[in-house]
Specification:
The protein is about 35% helix and about 25% strand. It is an alpha+beta fold and about 400 residues long.
Length: about 400
């Protein structure tokens, strides 16, 4: 019994690569291929080489057979001469056996424009006399794609640099430190979901008849990114200029809105704003809402929450909008005011669930014995944990004021 399984099957005859089959395979290749001898004389070319030689009117017959390719490279003049000489030097190194393979890519200007080629020269193993296969592959599409990618990366780097500069400028416009004023403990922070954002907050210290007052402003431009950041920078500048002039805060906001609405007409841009002025000595707080979420007011002694609400149109939509003055004269000791943008309570987790204002109120209550900075950090941490790793979809701005 024959245990050799291979003997049970007829042997496959070896493929014969001579003659017509070799020429068929050779001519089917897309690369321009020539076989040269030890002097660089072309002995054989494939169809792609012959087509290229015909289009580009190369020396000799259209098949290039008998042409000394190395001499042709050496004789090249003009801006392609340097590349041609490098190709000739590489092929000679392969012929002499100094290297096994030579590879090089270069540009070539032809009748139909500039092309890029990848040349590869390989010596045929064991052949005597020497035979070297020289192939030229058209890599124009690849080079153009690389150039497009390089330009895109350059543009991306330029844009990233511009965004970094914009972020630095915007950070400079935010308060560098929390205000120090007798009777109030204040903390504020903005966190942007992009390099720049549409949220902002500001503190303006005022003096009236030797009494210190503090104005707190929180704003939120529609959307986020550079356009929103520019809008909020404009709002900040307008608010600061107008706040230096006399008048109730409702008039301050009306004047700012009047100018913004002229500039933003038909742009679709707008901003919400909450403007509050606190007088700790007089135990009063005044505020105006311009389409912004009401502030949260918590009285720990009564364990009661109130909203600092009021009517008012968003900024930048209607020139003649009027705004409502609101006031409380009973600020309790230990009372806490929280002003935020919608990114604070409208943040969502991976399941799509919204955090909500009620959860924020619970955090305020649970941390009511702490200072303003600690309360602010507790709310920001709550916001972060609630997202459960989900990326924030909106900017987060928060100001906490605690009455002494």
């Amino acid at each position: 019994m024959n245990n050799n399984a291979s003997d049970n099957h007829p042997r496959t005859a070896p493929v014969d690569f001579s003659g017509t089959l070799v020429k068929t395979v050779f001519n089917s290749l897309s690369a321009n291929i020539a076989i040269v001898d030890e002097k660089g004389v072309i002995l054989e070319t494939n169809q792609a080489w012959r087509d290229y030689a015909n289009v580009n009117q190369m020396e000799g017959a259209h098949d290039s057979i008998g042409v000394n390719y190395l001499a042709l490279c050496d004789a090249t003049t003009g801006k392609g001469a340097g590349d041609a000489r490098k190709v000739a030097a590489g092929i000679r190194a392969v012929i002499r056996g100094e290297i096994k393979e030579f590879m090089y890519d270069y540009p070539c200007d032809g009748p139909d424009g500039r092309h890029f080629y990848y040349v590869r020269a390989v010596r045929v193993a064991g052949e005597q006399p020497v035979r070297v296969v020289v192939s030229h592959e058209d890599i124009t599409a690849l080079k153009l794609a690389e150039e497009e990618l390089r330009l895109r990366e350059k543009e991306r780097d330029r844009l990233r640099h511009s965004l970094e500069l914009a972020r630095e400028v915007q950070q400079i416009l935010l308060p560098r430190e929390n205000p120090k004023i007798a009777g109030l403990d204040v903390a504020g922070k903005s966190i942007y979901c992009d390099e720049t954002g549409g949220d902002y907050y500001d503190f303006i210290l005022l003096k009236e008849n030797d009494r210190e007052k503090l104005s707190v402003i929180v704003g939120d431009a529609a959307g986020h990114g550079i356009s929103s950041a520019l809008l909020m920078a404009t709002v900040r500048s307008a608010i600061r200029q107008r706040s230096a002039l006399p008048g109730p805060i409702s008039q301050i906001i009306a004047d700012v809105n009047h100018h913004l609405a002229k500039d933003l007409s038909d742009s679709g841009q707008f901003a919400t704003l909450f403007y509050m002025t606190l007088d700790p000595a007089g135990n009063t707080v005044e505020w105006v809402r311009a389409g912004h979420e009401p502030a949260i007011f918590y009285d720990p002694a009564a364990d009661a929450f109130f909203e600092l609400a009021g009517s008012g149109m968003v900024l930048g939509v209607a020139e003649e909008s009027r705004y409502e003055d609101n006031r409380r004269d009973d600020l309790p000791g230990g009372g806490i005011i929280v002003i935020g943008t919608d990114g604070v309570w409208e943040t969502r987790n991976e399941t799509g669930q919204m955090l909500g204002r009620e959860a924020i109120c619970d955090t305020i209550r649970n941390n009511s014995s702490a200072g303003a900075d600690a309360i602010m950090k507790a709310i920001i941490e709550q916001n972060k944990k609630f997202r459960m790793g989900a990326e924030p979809e909106d900017d987060v701005t928060l100001v906490v004021i605690k009455v002494a």
